[in-house]
Automatic annotation (TrEMBL):
It comes from the Bacteria. It is an enzyme of class 2 (transferase). (6R)-10-formyltetrahydrofolate binds at residues 65, 90-93, 107. Keywords: Purine biosynthesis, Transferase. This is Phosphoribosylglycinamide formyltransferase. Belongs to the GART family. Catalyzes the transfer of a formyl group from 10-formyltetrahydrofolate to 5-phospho-ribosyl-glycinamide (GAR), producing 5-phospho-ribosyl-N-formylglycinamide (FGAR) and tetrahydrofolate.
Amino acid sequence: MTRVAILISGGGSNMLRLVEDMTGDHPARPVLVASNDPQAAGLARAAALGVPVAAVDHHDFSRDRAGFEAALLQPLLDARPDIICLAGFMRILTPDFVQRFAGRMLNIHPSLLPKYAGLDTHARALAAGDAQAGCTVHEVTPELDSGPLLGQARVPVLLGDTPESLAARVLVQEHRLYPAVLRRFAVGDRTPVLL
């Protein structure tokens, strides 16, 4: 059985969809949900589903990124994940950390990469006048939001959209796309999922 750790920073809605999907004949099981914020609502949600949780407060390491990553690494090593899924994890990981899990770390990003890496993706898509927006699951590499694409889902940009309304529609697709990609990835299938 493939072991999956999930990193979050907030409510964990994508984490919940992943955990809820990893039942029955799914080839993977969640072994840890960890956060950089001990108050992240997703930690309680994961614990309520019986998934072990851990938190390393990044505020305790404001000038020590290596220290934060070393502290985060410990519960990950204890959980022995085969795959790490970033699901709304709002910390940029160093190349050394990423390389440790090369080829085994996934991220979901709220844009149609390679467009709009980084933050404020929905506002940037609207400002550019894009007809479509969406989300992407990709392998994590040392360069931000630049790893091989494993799946994308698209939504139309509607007249009168705001960043918030567009984000809400994209989130619905994130909840469909990430579980679909993880199911494939867990059995070694890297064929992109297109929704």
